[in-house]
Amino acid sequence: MKLKILKNTVLLLFISLFMVACSSKESPALTSQNSTLNAAVSESEDDEFDSEFEEADKVVFDPLEDYNRWMTSVNDKFYIHVFDPVSKGYAVVVPKPARVGVSNAFHNLKFPIRFTNNLLQFKFDASMKELGRFMINSTIGVLGLFDVAKAGGVEPQEEDFGQTLGHYGVGTGFHVVLPFLGPSNLRDTIGFAVDSAIAPTTDASLKYQIPDNAEKALGLSTAYYINKNSLHPGEYESLKKDALDVYTFFRDSYEQQRAKEIEK
Amino acid sequence: MLKQIIITGLLIFTPLFAIEEANIKSEMDSKIQTITSILQDNTISSAQKQESISPTVDTIFDYKTMSKISLGKKWKTLTTSQQDNFSQKFEAKLKNSYFEKLELYTNEKVLVKEQTKVKSTRIHLHTDIIGLEETYEIIYKFYKVKNSSDWLIYDIDITGVSIIQTYRKQFSEFLATKSFNELLESL
Protein backbone atom coordinates (compact mmCIF):
# COMPACT_ATOMS: atom_id res chain seq x y z
CA MET A 1 0.00 0.00 0.00
CA LYS A 2 1.44 3.37 -1.00
CA LEU A 3 1.51 5.96 1.72
CA LYS A 4 0.08 8.63 -0.55
CA ILE A 5 -2.97 6.65 -1.50
CA LEU A 6 -3.47 5.80 2.14
CA LYS A 7 -3.28 9.45 3.09
CA ASN A 8 -5.90 10.40 0.52
CA THR A 9 -8.20 7.59 1.64
CA VAL A 10 -7.85 8.63 5.25
CA LEU A 11 -8.59 12.25 4.37
CA LEU A 12 -11.67 11.27 2.41
CA LEU A 13 -12.94 9.05 5.19
CA PHE A 14 -12.33 11.83 7.67
CA ILE A 15 -14.48 14.27 5.76
CA SER A 16 -17.29 11.78 5.45
CA LEU A 17 -16.94 10.89 9.12
CA PHE A 18 -17.53 14.40 10.32
CA MET A 19 -20.61 14.63 8.16
CA VAL A 20 -22.18 11.67 9.92
CA ALA A 21 -20.57 11.98 13.33
CA CYS A 22 -23.33 14.29 14.57
CA SER A 23 -26.06 11.83 13.72
CA SER A 24 -24.88 9.26 16.22
CA LYS A 25 -23.68 11.11 19.28
CA GLU A 26 -22.74 8.70 21.98
CA SER A 27 -24.55 9.04 25.25
CA PRO A 28 -23.74 5.89 27.18
CA ALA A 29 -25.49 4.71 30.29
CA LEU A 30 -23.26 6.99 32.39
CA THR A 31 -25.40 10.10 32.09
CA SER A 32 -28.58 8.18 32.72
CA GLN A 33 -27.01 6.56 35.74
CA ASN A 34 -26.23 9.95 37.20
CA SER A 35 -29.76 11.15 36.73
CA THR A 36 -31.20 8.00 38.28
CA LEU A 37 -28.84 8.39 41.20
CA ASN A 38 -30.67 11.55 42.23
CA ALA A 39 -34.12 10.22 41.55
CA ALA A 40 -33.49 6.80 43.10
CA VAL A 41 -35.71 7.43 46.10
CA SER A 42 -38.85 8.19 44.19
CA GLU A 43 -38.20 5.81 41.35
CA SER A 44 -39.54 2.27 41.25
CA GLU A 45 -37.23 -0.69 40.75
CA ASP A 46 -38.57 -1.27 37.22
CA ASP A 47 -37.95 2.32 36.14
CA GLU A 48 -34.45 2.09 37.53
CA PHE A 49 -33.70 -0.95 35.37
CA ASP A 50 -35.40 0.70 32.39
CA SER A 51 -33.14 3.73 32.51
CA GLU A 52 -30.07 1.61 33.13
CA PHE A 53 -30.77 -0.39 29.98
CA GLU A 54 -32.28 2.37 27.86
CA GLU A 55 -29.36 2.16 25.42
CA ALA A 56 -30.89 -1.09 24.18
CA ASP A 57 -34.19 0.63 23.35
CA LYS A 58 -32.64 3.09 20.92
CA VAL A 59 -32.98 2.56 17.21
CA VAL A 60 -29.57 2.15 15.58
CA PHE A 61 -28.68 4.37 12.62
CA ASP A 62 -27.62 1.71 10.15
CA PRO A 63 -27.64 2.92 6.52
CA LEU A 64 -25.38 0.09 5.36
CA GLU A 65 -27.56 -2.63 6.88
CA ASP A 66 -28.17 -4.54 3.63
CA TYR A 67 -24.52 -4.59 2.70
CA ASN A 68 -23.49 -5.36 6.29
CA ARG A 69 -25.81 -8.36 6.49
CA TRP A 70 -24.47 -9.68 3.23
CA MET A 71 -20.86 -9.18 4.33
CA THR A 72 -21.60 -10.85 7.69
CA SER A 73 -22.79 -13.97 5.93
CA VAL A 74 -19.83 -13.92 3.52
CA ASN A 75 -17.45 -13.62 6.47
CA ASP A 76 -19.31 -16.36 8.30
CA LYS A 77 -18.98 -18.78 5.37
CA PHE A 78 -15.34 -17.86 4.90
CA TYR A 79 -14.72 -18.45 8.60
CA ILE A 80 -16.45 -21.82 8.71
CA HIS A 81 -15.16 -23.25 5.43
CA VAL A 82 -11.70 -21.74 5.08
CA PHE A 83 -10.34 -19.80 8.00
CA ASP A 84 -11.32 -22.07 10.87
CA PRO A 85 -10.23 -25.35 9.21
CA VAL A 86 -6.89 -23.74 8.35
CA SER A 87 -6.29 -22.52 11.89
CA LYS A 88 -7.33 -25.92 13.27
CA GLY A 89 -4.78 -27.60 11.01
CA TYR A 90 -2.18 -25.09 12.09
CA ALA A 91 -2.99 -25.80 15.74
CA VAL A 92 -2.33 -29.51 15.14
CA VAL A 93 1.11 -28.83 13.71
CA VAL A 94 2.24 -26.02 16.00
CA PRO A 95 2.17 -26.70 19.75
CA LYS A 96 0.29 -24.29 21.98
CA PRO A 97 3.28 -22.72 23.78
CA ALA A 98 4.76 -21.81 20.38
CA ARG A 99 1.48 -20.25 19.28
CA VAL A 100 1.32 -18.23 22.48
CA GLY A 101 4.88 -17.09 21.72
CA VAL A 102 3.90 -16.03 18.21
CA SER A 103 0.91 -14.17 19.63
CA ASN A 104 3.15 -12.40 22.15
CA ALA A 105 5.65 -11.47 19.45
CA PHE A 106 2.93 -9.94 17.25
CA HIS A 107 1.52 -8.08 20.22
CA ASN A 108 4.98 -6.77 21.04
CA LEU A 109 5.51 -5.63 17.45
CA LYS A 110 2.32 -3.59 17.63
CA PHE A 111 3.81 -1.55 20.44
CA PRO A 112 4.01 1.68 18.37
CA ILE A 113 0.20 1.69 18.04
CA ARG A 114 -0.41 1.46 21.78
CA PHE A 115 2.42 3.82 22.68
CA THR A 116 1.41 6.52 20.18
CA ASN A 117 -2.27 6.38 21.03
CA ASN A 118 -1.63 6.54 24.76
CA LEU A 119 0.49 9.61 24.11
CA LEU A 120 -2.17 11.16 21.88
CA GLN A 121 -4.62 10.83 24.76
CA PHE A 122 -2.07 12.28 27.21
CA LYS A 123 -1.98 9.01 29.13
CA PHE A 124 1.70 9.36 30.04
CA ASP A 125 1.69 6.70 32.74
CA ALA A 126 0.28 4.16 30.34
CA SER A 127 2.72 5.18 27.58
CA MET A 128 5.65 4.71 29.94
CA LYS A 129 4.33 1.29 30.93
CA GLU A 130 4.11 0.39 27.25
CA LEU A 131 7.64 1.63 26.62
CA GLY A 132 8.93 -0.37 29.57
CA ARG A 133 7.05 -3.46 28.42
CA PHE A 134 8.48 -3.12 24.91
CA MET A 135 12.05 -2.78 26.16
CA ILE A 136 11.81 -5.68 28.59
CA ASN A 137 9.88 -8.04 26.29
CA SER A 138 12.07 -7.29 23.26
CA THR A 139 15.26 -8.11 25.17
CA ILE A 140 14.72 -10.43 28.12
CA GLY A 141 11.54 -11.73 26.46
CA VAL A 142 13.54 -12.79 23.36
CA LEU A 143 12.08 -10.51 20.65
CA GLY A 144 8.71 -10.49 22.36
CA LEU A 145 8.16 -14.25 22.36
CA PHE A 146 7.69 -14.16 26.12
CA ASP A 147 5.61 -11.57 27.90
CA VAL A 148 7.92 -11.30 30.90
CA ALA A 149 6.63 -7.82 31.73
CA LYS A 150 3.10 -9.15 32.22
CA ALA A 151 4.41 -11.95 34.40
CA GLY A 152 6.06 -9.19 36.44
CA GLY A 153 2.74 -7.41 36.82
CA VAL A 154 3.01 -4.78 34.06
CA GLU A 155 -0.17 -5.25 32.02
CA PRO A 156 -0.45 -4.04 28.40
CA GLN A 157 -2.21 -0.69 27.98
CA GLU A 158 -4.45 -1.26 24.98
CA GLU A 159 -5.20 1.83 22.90
CA ASP A 160 -5.76 2.34 19.18
CA PHE A 161 -6.54 5.31 16.96
CA GLY A 162 -10.26 4.53 16.90
CA GLN A 163 -10.21 4.89 20.69
CA THR A 164 -8.18 8.09 20.43
CA LEU A 165 -10.81 9.57 18.11
CA GLY A 166 -13.55 8.42 20.46
CA HIS A 167 -11.67 9.89 23.41
CA TYR A 168 -11.86 13.31 21.74
CA GLY A 169 -15.58 12.98 21.12
CA VAL A 170 -15.66 11.74 17.54
CA GLY A 171 -18.84 9.72 17.07
CA THR A 172 -18.86 6.16 15.77
CA GLY A 173 -20.33 7.05 12.40
CA PHE A 174 -22.36 4.20 10.95
CA HIS A 175 -21.64 0.53 11.50
CA VAL A 176 -19.73 -1.24 8.77
CA VAL A 177 -18.78 -4.90 8.46
CA LEU A 178 -15.33 -5.19 6.90
CA PRO A 179 -14.36 -8.09 4.63
CA PHE A 180 -12.53 -10.77 6.68
CA LEU A 181 -12.09 -8.45 9.67
CA GLY A 182 -15.75 -8.32 10.72
CA PRO A 183 -17.67 -5.67 12.69
CA SER A 184 -16.37 -2.11 12.72
CA ASN A 185 -17.68 1.39 12.24
CA LEU A 186 -16.58 4.38 10.23
CA ARG A 187 -14.51 5.84 13.06
CA ASP A 188 -12.74 2.57 13.85
CA THR A 189 -12.12 1.82 10.17
CA ILE A 190 -10.24 5.11 9.92
CA GLY A 191 -8.50 4.25 13.17
CA PHE A 192 -7.51 0.87 11.78
CA ALA A 193 -6.09 2.45 8.60
CA VAL A 194 -4.05 4.96 10.61
CA ASP A 195 -2.78 2.33 13.05
CA SER A 196 -1.87 0.03 10.17
CA ALA A 197 0.21 2.80 8.60
CA ILE A 198 2.48 2.98 11.63
CA ALA A 199 2.52 -0.72 12.57
CA PRO A 200 5.80 -2.56 11.93
CA THR A 201 3.79 -5.48 10.53
CA THR A 202 2.48 -3.53 7.54
CA ASP A 203 4.16 -1.88 4.59
CA ALA A 204 3.82 1.89 4.32
CA SER A 205 7.50 2.42 3.44
CA LEU A 206 8.52 3.40 6.96
CA LYS A 207 12.06 2.34 7.84
CA TYR A 208 11.21 0.02 10.73
CA GLN A 209 8.45 -1.83 8.91
CA ILE A 210 9.19 -5.50 8.31
CA PRO A 211 7.36 -6.30 5.04
CA ASP A 212 8.67 -4.46 1.99
CA ASN A 213 5.68 -5.12 -0.23
CA ALA A 214 1.92 -5.50 0.05
CA GLU A 215 1.97 -9.28 -0.44
CA LYS A 216 4.35 -9.84 2.45
CA ALA A 217 2.29 -7.52 4.62
CA LEU A 218 -0.86 -9.46 3.75
CA GLY A 219 0.91 -12.73 4.48
CA LEU A 220 2.03 -11.46 7.84
CA SER A 221 -1.40 -10.28 8.89
CA THR A 222 -2.96 -13.55 7.69
CA ALA A 223 -0.48 -15.40 9.89
CA TYR A 224 -1.44 -13.13 12.77
CA TYR A 225 -5.17 -13.85 12.46
CA ILE A 226 -4.73 -17.59 11.94
CA ASN A 227 -2.48 -17.81 14.99
CA LYS A 228 -4.93 -15.75 17.02
CA ASN A 229 -7.91 -17.86 16.02
CA SER A 230 -6.03 -21.07 16.80
CA LEU A 231 -5.79 -19.91 20.41
CA HIS A 232 -9.55 -19.30 20.64
CA PRO A 233 -11.15 -22.45 19.25
CA GLY A 234 -14.94 -22.65 19.31
CA GLU A 235 -15.46 -19.12 20.59
CA TYR A 236 -17.09 -17.73 17.48
CA GLU A 237 -19.48 -20.68 17.15
CA SER A 238 -20.38 -20.48 20.82
CA LEU A 239 -21.12 -16.75 20.65
CA LYS A 240 -23.13 -17.18 17.48
CA LYS A 241 -25.49 -19.55 19.26
CA ASP A 242 -26.51 -16.74 21.65
CA ALA A 243 -27.84 -14.67 18.78
CA LEU A 244 -31.41 -14.42 17.54
CA ASP A 245 -30.07 -12.35 14.66
CA VAL A 246 -26.37 -12.91 14.07
CA TYR A 247 -25.76 -9.58 12.35
CA THR A 248 -27.34 -7.29 14.98
CA PHE A 249 -25.91 -9.44 17.77
CA PHE A 250 -22.32 -8.91 16.63
CA ARG A 251 -23.02 -5.29 15.66
CA ASP A 252 -24.38 -4.37 19.10
CA SER A 253 -21.76 -6.37 20.99
CA TYR A 254 -19.02 -4.66 19.03
CA GLU A 255 -20.36 -1.14 19.62
CA GLN A 256 -20.92 -1.82 23.34
CA GLN A 257 -17.41 -3.14 23.74
CA ARG A 258 -15.80 -0.22 21.92
CA ALA A 259 -17.79 2.32 23.94
CA LYS A 260 -16.48 0.67 27.12
CA GLU A 261 -12.89 0.63 25.88
CA ILE A 262 -13.05 4.34 25.08
CA GLU A 263 -14.49 5.13 28.52
CA LYS A 264 -11.39 3.64 30.15
CA MET B 1 -13.03 -39.27 44.68
CA LEU B 2 -12.23 -37.40 47.86
CA LYS B 3 -12.28 -34.19 45.87
CA GLN B 4 -15.81 -34.93 44.67
CA ILE B 5 -17.00 -35.57 48.19
CA ILE B 6 -15.51 -32.31 49.38
CA ILE B 7 -17.09 -30.41 46.50
CA THR B 8 -20.49 -32.00 47.08
CA GLY B 9 -20.14 -31.12 50.75
CA LEU B 10 -19.32 -27.54 49.86
CA LEU B 11 -22.36 -27.33 47.62
CA ILE B 12 -24.74 -28.66 50.25
CA PHE B 13 -23.59 -26.12 52.78
CA THR B 14 -23.66 -23.20 50.36
CA PRO B 15 -26.47 -21.10 51.81
CA LEU B 16 -29.57 -21.10 49.65
CA PHE B 17 -30.19 -17.39 49.82
CA ALA B 18 -28.82 -14.19 48.35
CA ILE B 19 -25.64 -12.53 49.56
CA GLU B 20 -25.33 -9.64 51.99
CA GLU B 21 -23.31 -6.64 50.93
CA ALA B 22 -20.31 -7.25 53.17
CA ASN B 23 -20.00 -10.84 51.95
CA ILE B 24 -20.28 -10.35 48.20
CA LYS B 25 -16.57 -10.53 47.47
CA SER B 26 -15.75 -13.44 49.76
CA GLU B 27 -18.86 -15.44 48.78
CA MET B 28 -18.22 -14.92 45.09
CA ASP B 29 -14.59 -15.79 45.58
CA SER B 30 -15.47 -19.12 47.15
CA LYS B 31 -18.19 -19.81 44.57
CA ILE B 32 -15.75 -19.16 41.73
CA GLN B 33 -13.16 -21.40 43.41
CA THR B 34 -15.79 -24.11 43.72
CA ILE B 35 -16.73 -23.78 40.06
CA THR B 36 -13.16 -23.77 38.77
CA SER B 37 -12.24 -26.81 40.82
CA ILE B 38 -15.26 -28.65 39.39
CA LEU B 39 -14.24 -27.60 35.89
CA GLN B 40 -10.66 -28.75 36.41
CA ASP B 41 -11.76 -32.19 37.57
CA ASN B 42 -11.11 -34.51 34.66
CA THR B 43 -12.74 -37.52 36.27
CA ILE B 44 -16.34 -36.31 35.82
CA SER B 45 -18.32 -35.77 32.61
CA SER B 46 -19.44 -32.35 31.46
CA ALA B 47 -23.07 -33.24 32.26
CA GLN B 48 -22.06 -34.04 35.83
CA LYS B 49 -20.11 -30.81 35.97
CA GLN B 50 -23.20 -28.85 34.97
CA GLU B 51 -25.22 -30.62 37.61
CA SER B 52 -22.70 -29.76 40.30
CA ILE B 53 -22.28 -26.14 39.21
CA SER B 54 -25.96 -25.33 38.81
CA PRO B 55 -26.86 -24.97 42.51
CA THR B 56 -23.82 -22.72 43.06
CA VAL B 57 -25.02 -20.15 40.55
CA ASP B 58 -28.79 -20.56 40.96
CA THR B 59 -28.79 -19.04 44.42
CA ILE B 60 -27.28 -15.75 43.26
CA PHE B 61 -28.55 -15.36 39.68
CA ASP B 62 -31.94 -13.67 39.64
CA TYR B 63 -33.30 -15.21 36.43
CA LYS B 64 -36.73 -13.64 36.91
CA THR B 65 -35.33 -10.11 37.00
CA MET B 66 -33.06 -10.90 34.07
CA SER B 67 -36.11 -12.03 32.08
CA LYS B 68 -38.01 -8.89 33.01
CA ILE B 69 -35.20 -6.52 32.02
CA SER B 70 -34.47 -8.36 28.80
CA LEU B 71 -38.06 -7.93 27.60
CA GLY B 72 -38.19 -4.23 28.51
CA LYS B 73 -41.57 -2.56 28.02
CA LYS B 74 -43.06 -5.70 26.53
CA TRP B 75 -42.97 -7.43 29.94
CA LYS B 76 -45.86 -5.43 31.42
CA THR B 77 -48.12 -6.20 28.48
CA LEU B 78 -47.90 -9.94 29.13
CA THR B 79 -50.16 -12.12 31.28
CA THR B 80 -48.63 -13.80 34.31
CA SER B 81 -48.57 -17.17 32.60
CA GLN B 82 -46.87 -15.68 29.55
CA GLN B 83 -44.29 -14.08 31.83
CA ASP B 84 -43.64 -17.37 33.61
CA ASN B 85 -43.42 -19.21 30.34
CA PHE B 86 -40.90 -16.72 29.01
CA SER B 87 -38.86 -16.68 32.23
CA GLN B 88 -38.56 -20.45 32.17
CA LYS B 89 -37.37 -20.53 28.57
CA PHE B 90 -35.04 -17.60 29.01
CA GLU B 91 -33.52 -19.14 32.14
CA ALA B 92 -32.86 -22.34 30.21
CA LYS B 93 -31.29 -20.35 27.38
CA LEU B 94 -29.04 -18.39 29.73
CA LYS B 95 -27.92 -21.56 31.48
CA ASN B 96 -27.26 -23.33 28.21
CA SER B 97 -25.20 -20.46 26.96
CA TYR B 98 -23.36 -20.21 30.28
CA PHE B 99 -22.48 -23.88 30.36
CA GLU B 100 -21.38 -23.79 26.78
CA LYS B 101 -18.99 -20.99 27.61
CA LEU B 102 -17.68 -23.03 30.53
CA GLU B 103 -16.87 -25.82 28.07
CA LEU B 104 -14.31 -23.46 26.59
CA TYR B 105 -12.59 -23.17 29.96
CA THR B 106 -9.01 -24.42 29.92
CA ASN B 107 -7.43 -23.84 33.32
CA GLU B 108 -7.45 -20.04 33.14
CA LYS B 109 -6.92 -18.36 36.47
CA VAL B 110 -9.83 -16.32 37.80
CA LEU B 111 -9.00 -13.33 39.90
CA VAL B 112 -11.70 -11.63 41.99
CA LYS B 113 -10.65 -7.98 42.14
CA GLU B 114 -12.71 -5.30 43.82
CA GLN B 115 -16.37 -4.66 44.50
CA THR B 116 -17.59 -1.15 43.77
CA LYS B 117 -20.86 0.35 44.89
CA VAL B 118 -21.97 2.34 41.85
CA LYS B 119 -25.11 3.54 43.64
CA SER B 120 -27.12 2.71 46.73
CA THR B 121 -28.84 -0.24 45.05
CA ARG B 122 -26.08 -1.43 42.70
CA ILE B 123 -22.78 -3.20 43.30
CA HIS B 124 -20.32 -4.28 40.62
CA LEU B 125 -17.90 -7.10 41.33
CA HIS B 126 -14.87 -6.95 39.03
CA THR B 127 -13.13 -10.18 38.12
CA ASP B 128 -10.38 -11.07 35.64
CA ILE B 129 -10.02 -14.25 33.68
CA ILE B 130 -6.33 -14.57 32.95
CA GLY B 131 -5.79 -16.47 29.73
CA LEU B 132 -2.50 -17.47 28.16
CA GLU B 133 -2.19 -14.35 26.04
CA GLU B 134 -5.11 -12.14 27.05
CA THR B 135 -6.95 -11.07 30.18
CA TYR B 136 -10.73 -10.73 30.09
CA GLU B 137 -12.65 -8.60 32.53
CA ILE B 138 -15.96 -9.94 33.78
CA ILE B 139 -18.20 -7.78 35.93
CA TYR B 140 -20.97 -9.34 37.98
CA LYS B 141 -23.71 -6.76 38.55
CA PHE B 142 -25.73 -7.03 41.76
CA TYR B 143 -28.89 -5.16 42.73
CA LYS B 144 -30.30 -4.77 46.20
CA VAL B 145 -33.52 -6.69 46.67
CA LYS B 146 -36.28 -4.35 47.85
CA ASN B 147 -36.95 -4.27 51.60
CA SER B 148 -34.15 -6.68 52.41
CA SER B 149 -30.39 -6.68 52.82
CA ASP B 150 -29.93 -9.26 50.08
CA TRP B 151 -28.12 -8.75 46.81
CA LEU B 152 -28.67 -10.72 43.60
CA ILE B 153 -27.04 -10.76 40.18
CA TYR B 154 -29.14 -9.19 37.41
CA ASP B 155 -26.53 -8.86 34.66
CA ILE B 156 -23.00 -9.89 33.68
CA ASP B 157 -20.62 -7.75 31.68
CA ILE B 158 -18.15 -9.76 29.62
CA THR B 159 -15.29 -7.62 28.26
CA GLY B 160 -17.56 -4.60 28.10
CA VAL B 161 -20.59 -6.39 26.66
CA SER B 162 -23.65 -6.58 28.88
CA ILE B 163 -25.38 -9.92 28.41
CA ILE B 164 -28.82 -8.65 29.38
CA GLN B 165 -28.56 -5.45 27.34
CA THR B 166 -27.62 -7.53 24.31
CA TYR B 167 -30.66 -9.78 24.81
CA ARG B 168 -32.92 -6.78 25.41
CA LYS B 169 -31.82 -5.32 22.09
CA GLN B 170 -32.22 -8.64 20.28
CA PHE B 171 -35.68 -9.21 21.71
CA SER B 172 -36.96 -5.72 20.97
CA GLU B 173 -35.74 -5.96 17.38
CA PHE B 174 -37.31 -9.39 17.03
CA LEU B 175 -40.63 -8.20 18.46
CA ALA B 176 -40.69 -5.20 16.13
CA THR B 177 -41.49 -7.52 13.25
CA LYS B 178 -42.58 -10.78 14.89
CA SER B 179 -44.98 -11.94 17.60
CA PHE B 180 -44.31 -12.89 21.21
CA ASN B 181 -45.17 -16.52 20.49
CA GLU B 182 -42.61 -16.63 17.72
CA LEU B 183 -40.06 -15.30 20.20
CA LEU B 184 -40.93 -18.06 22.65
CA GLU B 185 -40.43 -20.64 19.92
CA SER B 186 -37.06 -19.26 18.91
CA LEU B 187 -35.66 -19.45 22.43
TrEMBL record, chain A:
It comes from the Bacteria. Pfam families: MlaA. InterPro entries: MlaA. Keywords: Signal. GO terms for biological process: intermembrane phospholipid transfer. GO terms for cellular component: membrane. Residues 1-21 form the signal peptide. PANTHER family: INTERMEMBRANE PHOSPHOLIPID TRANSPORT SYSTEM LIPOPROTEIN MLAA, LIPOPROTEIN VACJ-RELATED. Belongs to the MlaA family. This is Uncharacterized protein. It comes from uncultured Sulfurovum sp.
From TrEMBL, chain B:
InterPro entries: MlaC/ttg2D, Tgt2/MlaC_sf. The lineage of its organism: Bacteria, Pseudomonadati, Campylobacterota, Epsilonproteobacteria, Campylobacterales. It comes from the Bacteria. Gene3D superfamilies: Tgt2/MlaC (3.10.450.710). This is Periplasmic protein.
